[in-house]
Amino acid sequence: MTAATPDPAATPSTAARGSAVGLDTPPPQAGRHARRAVARSAGRDRWLVGLVGVVLLLAGTGAALLAFGIFGTGRAQRSVLDPMIVDALRAQPLLWRIVAIVGGLLLLVLGLLWAIRSLSPERRPDLALDAGADTTLTVTAAAVADAVAGQARALPGISRARARMVGDERDPALRLTVWLAEDADVGEVCRRIPEEVLAAATDAFGGRALPVAVRIEADTEEGPRVR
Amino acid sequence: MRVLLRVLAPLLGLALAAVGVLVVVEVVAAWIGSAGTTGSDGVIVPWPSWQQTLDGLVWATTPVRITAIVVAVVGLLLLLVALAARRHDVPLRPPAPDVTVTTSPQALARMVGRRVRAADAVSSAAVTASRRAISVRAQGWEPTDGGTGLAESVRGDVESLLDDLPLANRPRVSVAVRRQAGPR
Questions:
Q1: DSSP assignment of A172-198, as one string?
Q2: Which chain B residues are closer than 8 Å to A39 by Cβ?
Q3: Could you tell me which residues are beta bridge partners of residue A163?
Q4: CATH top-level class for B101-179?
Q5: What CATH number was assigned to the domain covering residues A14-39+123-218?
Q6: Are B98 and A212 in contact (CB under 8 A)?
Q7: How close does chain B come to A136, measured CA to CA in Å?
Q8: What value does the mean pLDDT of chain B take?
Q9: What is the pLDDT of residue B35?
Q10: What is the pLDDT of residue A185?
Q11: Angle at A172 between CA A169 and CA A176, to 5 degrees
């Protein structure tokens, strides 16, 4: 589309407002930070669950092939706890005990780290503003969220809005979720959010332009007829 | 799938940690036991009796085959969960380099559904949407005056909404209509 698409070069976007404090060219990683702020990343969990799945799949498939005699009927008739392997382990008990203990400790530490990181809530970093050499000015994450969500709710066509800070203190970002009312002009809302809400937030925070991820949802007033 | 992943991930982490604890405890206990007493039964896990059972069990038996297949199926399911738990966001054109705008397939489907149902000729509609395709199944009345057909009218409404939405990639639109009998 096109008629309602804002031209970044012609609108007072956050980047343009940032130029007053030397942010006229957004850092190259800004877009990446904004994309990362869209939702909490599940990359680590997906990778690890996939890894456990692959290990189980390979082990189960290998054992099944062996049990069905694909590697020879002689092998399939051997004991599951093969005496050859048991003898090899018993030949060097000290080595294998140490290997088992180190492996167990590794599993313990990695498993606990994984569980703790999966269960820990997403961080809400405060926003540190540049207030001079001897002064530190910090805006709390809740204050930033309230200010931005309040601005967004004031726009026509938006029935609800929620904002939260994400990332860490060094690279904070903002996640803004807006729910469109039934009679909303979607294109107009998309154009006005960066022009008015985000630009006002940038002004309020001393010209500091944050990477922002905007999520647009449609308010449900008509029941679940769609999926 | 992302909810299932969020539940599974900490459980698997705790399971791995539990296995690690059991291995360390049993190996250390067996090590200490072998220096003093003999015939230990294991501290938490009765592994000596498991060892005896596995000693007398050959690979080509039904319990081993079933266990192997179950392990492989569980692994496959975990792999599928991990692969399917990606995000299905619908990206919109970013208005500035440091701003990302997305919507969900459900929200896009609702917007399309509202626009389609707003037409007088449509009595009901169901919409499925993704970033690549929008599918509309509508029911309504064909025009009696020989004007634009119902399918063309519905497609026009959807295309008009897509014109208003700054989507990064325009999805394909498919429309299926069912003619409604009787008066409006």
A1: EEEEEEEEE-TT--HHHHHHHIIIIII
A2: 87, 89
A3: A176
A4: alpha beta
A5: 3.30.70.1350
A6: yes
A7: 25
A8: 88
A9: 61
A10: 80
A11: 145
- Residue with structure tokens 């769609």? A226
Residues of A in contact with B103 (CB under 8 A): 215-217
Q: Which residue of A has its CA nearest to B56?
A: A79
pLDDT digits (tens, 9 = 90+) for B3-14: 899 999 999 999
The whole-angstrom separation of Cα B129 and Cα B89 is 11
Where, residue-wise, is CATH 3.30.70.1350 in chain A? 14-39+123-218
* Cβ distance of A46 and B31 shorter than 8 Å: no
Residue window 120-179, chain A: list those with CB within 8 Å of chain B.
none
Lowest mean pLDDT among A38-52, A118-132, B114-128: A118-132
Q: Where are the domains of chain B?
A: 2-84, 101-179
Contact between residue A129 and residue A138 where contact means Cβ atoms under 8 Å apart: yes
> Which pLDDT value is given to residue B183?
63
User: Amino acid identity of B3?
Assistant: V
Per-residue pLDDT averaged across A100-116, rounded? 96
Mean pLDDT of A55-81: 91
Question: Model pTM?
Answer: 0.73
